[in-house]
């Protein structure tokens, strides 16, 4: 009898452990850190068809537009709640001379975009057009100043043109160009990729230059904006160390760039479509590396800045694949699949969890370039799976991060494995709890138990899911809605502090609890 009950106990225990293998515990009362809405930021560079033949078609275009901005794009971006937009680059920023892009259109010089395909641009989209766009989108502008090939004088004149209300030459030039009041510029980047396309500098040399530019930026701009130092290329931890050592008092934020390559490397990035499970898995695994990267850079920053005065800004990230066949290689036009939606959701979960140090992130890029929100062809427009993730996740903007711990099974492929689930949770100012969940396994639905502590919930207000028939599914101009969010019903309340969710294979889910 004793033996039988011991056997039954072991069986029950094994069953319980198995049944509870996927458990997410959320501390509803323990939130301390705000998820800065700017983690959901975007990046628009003069590159390929991001600006020209993308956001900007010009007032005379047959494509419906609002003062030159493409109308369907404008509406889609307004619905996305873009909090901040970085411009004009990227590598382009360090060749950009802002005075080429102001004043009467017919007097603006043509320029050659030397980094991106040698395309000749007419400068019809310049400072006024960008800052007016930010006002239309109700987002903060993040200006990237030219440190690589520009001068301090050029930068401070730009600052005066954009932000001064005084009776000074650059503010008067702005008034002459039809804009009386200054714009509200919140972020100023002191150079871009100064270790590479932005001047090929050593960290020591750049740190000195950054101090010089930053000094005058402060003199002319005061505290109107945060000054962002150019940060590391992925895992170049020494760059962060030197910048913090020499420049921490001269900047309010330090950037970080990290791109996900699903293939073997920069020379073999792999296609954005038609890939198999190995490239699906690799893309997700490389995307998850963001966690380690941010943790390591943050801990270096902690050594110099325990109070976290200097923010970390991941101001370029996303998957970089081969360009679409038949398009100009230098224009970086790539498709966007369900895999890429999962790279977006897992990265946003990671960044949410690092909200104590990470105050901004800007996915590259907003339209027609790299992991874009929107793709266009002639007068057609498509919202990508990544767009849908950003829209589903915007409930986390400025909400309070809820501490959580996740125990989950692994998604295995060959000899490799990654956690099968990604998640993050927050509570907004109205007390609504949002939980975002991704099932990375493309081959099975996963059951997850969610336990809330500190405070319970009354009901599951709503749920949305994004998934597709295949992990490499994309939205095309012929089938623009192959991957789109729908209502999610597979969450069941078990008690005031417990629910059970069945997360479909390769899917992203957002739940609202109240
Ligand atoms: O986003 C495309 C390019 O990637 C940017 O211009 C540059 O900063 C980075 O290398």
Mean pLDDT: 95
**Tell me, what's the shape?**
globular
Arrangement of strands in the largest sheet: 2-5-8-9-10-11-12-13
CATH class of the largest domain: Alpha Beta
Plain-language structure description:
It is built from 10 helices and 27 strands. The termini are far apart. Helix 7 links the parallel strand 10 and strand 11. By secondary structure, the protein is an alpha/beta fold. The radius of gyration is 24 Å and the shape is globular. The chain has an 8-stranded parallel beta barrel with strand order 2-5-8-9-10-11-12-13, surrounded by 5 helices. Strands 16-20-21-27-23-24 form a 6-stranded antiparallel sheet, with helices on one face. The chain has a 5-stranded mixed sheet with strand order 17-1-22-26-25, with no helix packed on it. Helix 4 packs across helix 5, helix 8 runs parallel beside helix 9 and helix 9 packs parallel to helix 10. It has 2 domains: 123 residues, Immunoglobulin-like, CATH 2.60.40; 361 residues, TIM Barrel, CATH 3.20.20. Alpha-L-arabinofuranose (AHR) binds next to loops.
Write the layout of secondary structure elements.
Blueprint: H1 2-19, E1 23-27, E2 41-43, E3 65-66, E4 69-70, H2 71-80, E5 84-87, E6 111-113, E7 119-121, H3 127-137, E8 140-145, H4 152-163, H5 169-176, E9 187-190, H6 203-221, E10 226-233, H7 237-247, E11 253-260, H8 277-304, E12 311-319, H9 338-353, E13 358-364, E14 374-377, E15 380-383, H10 385-393, E16 400-401, E17 404-407, E18 410-413, E19 416-419, E20 421-427, E21 433-439, E22 446-453, E23 460-466, E24 486-487, E25 491-495, E26 498-503, E27 507-513
Parallel strand pairs: 1-22, 2-5, 2-13, 5-8, 8-9, 9-10, 10-11, 11-12, 12-13
Antiparallel strand pairs: 1-17, 3-4, 6-7, 14-15, 16-20, 18-19, 20-21, 21-27, 22-26, 23-24, 23-27, 25-26
Helix pairs in contact: 4-5, 4-6, 6-7, 7-8, 8-9, 9-10
The chain binds alpha-L-arabinofuranose.
